[in-house]
Structures are given as structure tokens and as C-alpha cells.
Specification:
PyrdxlP_homeostasis; alpha/beta; Pyridoxal phosphate homeostasis protein; disordered N terminus; about 35% helix; 8 strands; 8-stranded parallel beta sheet; single chain; binds pyridoxal-5'-phosphate; pyridoxal phosphate binding; TIM Barrel; pyridoxal phosphate
Length: about 240
């Protein structure tokens, strides 16, 4: 997507601009566009949390976001997390893990992440219950809207039992539901469905009201349909230099 917040004459840097300051300007423009969309939806900015996804980007880019006040950052691999954890300037980051989680990496991820958005099977929860963690970890149960197993997420039929398993876990704190709109799907229809399915999770724990939905290409629809946690990469960070 382009021009997340082109208004008032302020130029938003193109997505291939990685000069110092470009990401900050995209972030500021994105936040402005987001605030407008939230207002248009009749919602409150306090109810919508922005996670800037830094995957495939450098620690320096992440540090630029932190300096601009963006402390919630997302990565989708353990390797990506580890590459940034030790970097100066990133100590205060709240890391969100968004990717498919392999069992043998789950403990390492849980030790460093504030929140895992991709809990998609009970075995992961069983595994984490057997290890020692010194603090609770926020968790979203990821639902698959199209049943495509390569993209992660539990089938709709498995959503309620999985949410119950997370709610009963030792270390995970059930926050809500997460979903990715299927490729080529109508985003409004997809996120309307997510909002319905959020009620299944809320039925398990009345406090688990959060909805993690919306990426660079479909976040406006997600805001319209009640998303509380947006996971925005490209619109803020630009296109990764390795992916151009
Ligand atoms: C990469 C990723 C995002 C961000 O994607 P963009 O299209 O770059 O905004 C969000 N959620 C998940 C699960 C991701 O893997």
C-alpha cells in the first residue's frame, strides 16, 4: 500500500526509502491515518494497539521506531527476535511473536516475548506448561479462516477447546483471538467472521476480548470490525531490502 497518511502536504517516503528518518516519517503518517480511521469507525484510539512488525529489517530500523516512541514490535521467527534482543536501544521493546511456532522453539520465544499471537494447537500449551517461566506471557489463539494449514491457525471447530486449554495454562494469559485474512479474500467479510469467532473466545474467558487482526493491506477493514491489535509491517517499515 502507499500513502498511508498523505495529507497536509507532508510527503510520506516511498516504501523503498530506507534513509535515516524515513521509517519515522512513515510511522507518523501511519499513526495519523490510523487515528482518522478509528474516529471514522466511532471507536477510541485507546482501544486499538499498534504493533510495528520489523521482520526482515535491521535492528537499526527497530531502534528508529523505538526512538519515535513505538515500543510494541513484532517478529515472526525466533532468529529474528534473537537478532534484535541484544541491540542497544531496544531494551524497552515489548516483543510480539506472530509466526508459526515450532514446539522446540516455543520455550525460547516465551522467555523473551511479551505476547504470542500464534498459539494454534494444544501441544504448544502442554509443552510450555512443562517448563519454568519467570513471568506470564500474553497469548492469542490463532484461528484459520480458510483451513489452509500452511498459514497457521486452528480450525474453527478447534477454537473453543484451544481457548479453554490456554485459559487453564500455567504461564499463558488468554487475551483473545488472532487471524490473518485469507489470500484474495474480501477483508470485510473475513474480519466480520473474526469478530463473530471472538465471541467463542470471550465465552471461555469474559476478559479475553482482544482481536489481533489487520496488516498493511487490510487494516482499515480490521479497524471497522473491531480489531484491538493491528500488526503493521510494510506500511511503516517499507519493503525489506532483501525482498525487493
Ligand atoms: C508479516 C506479518 C504481518 C505484517 O505484514 P505487512 O503486510 O507487512 O503489514 C502481520 N501479521 C503476520 C502474522 C505477519 O507474518
Amino acid at each position: 500500500m502507499t500513502g498511508a497518511g498523505e495529507r497536509g502536504g507532508a510527503e510520506v517516503p516511498p516504501l523503498d526509502d530506507h534513509r535515516p528518518g524515513a521509517t519515522t516519517r512513515r510511522l507518523v503518517a501511519y499513526r495519523a491515518a490510523l487515528a482518522e480511521e478509528i474516529a471514522r469507525a466511532g471507536r477510541s484510539v485507546a482501544d486499538v494497539h499498534l504493533i510495528a512488525v520489523t521482520k526482515y529489517h535491521s535492528a537499526a530500523l527497530a531502534a528508529e521506531l523505538v526512538a519515535a516512541g513505538q515500543l510494541d514490535l513484532g517478529e515472526n521467527t525466533l532468529q529474528g527476535l534473537r537478532g534484535k534482543l541484544a541491540e542497544p536501544g531496544l531494551e524497552a521493546v515489548r516483543w510480539h511473536f506472530l509466526g508459526r511456532l515450532q514446539r522446540n522453539k516455543a520455550t525460547a520465544v516465551a522467555r523473551v516475548a511479551t505476547c504470542i499471537h500464534s498459539i494454534d494447537r494444544p501441544e504448544l500449551v502442554d509443552h510450555l506448561d512443562r517448563v519454568e517461566l519467570d513471568r506470564p506471557v500474553d497469548a492469542f489463539v490463532q484461528v484459520s479462516l480458510d483451513g489452509d494449514p500452511t498459514r497457521g491457525g486452528v480450525a474453527v471447530a478447534g477454537l473453543e477447546p484451544l481457548a479453554e486449554r490456554v485459559a487453564a495454562s500455567r504461564h499463558l494469559r488468554l487475551r483473545g483471538i488472532m487471524a490473518v485474512a485469507p489470500v484474495g479474500a474480501d477483508a470485510d467479510a473475513a474480519f466480520a467472521r473474526v469478530r463473530e469467532l471472538a465471541e467463542v473466545v470471550r465465552g471461555v474467558d469474559p476478559a479475553a476480548t482482544a482481536i489481533s487482526a489487520g496488516m498493511s493491506s487490510d487494516w482499515r477493514a480490521a479497524v471497522r470490525h473491531g480489531a484491538t491489535h493491528l500488526r503493521i509491517g510494510t506500511a511503516i517499515t517499507g519493503v525489506p531490502e532483501t525482498h525487493r
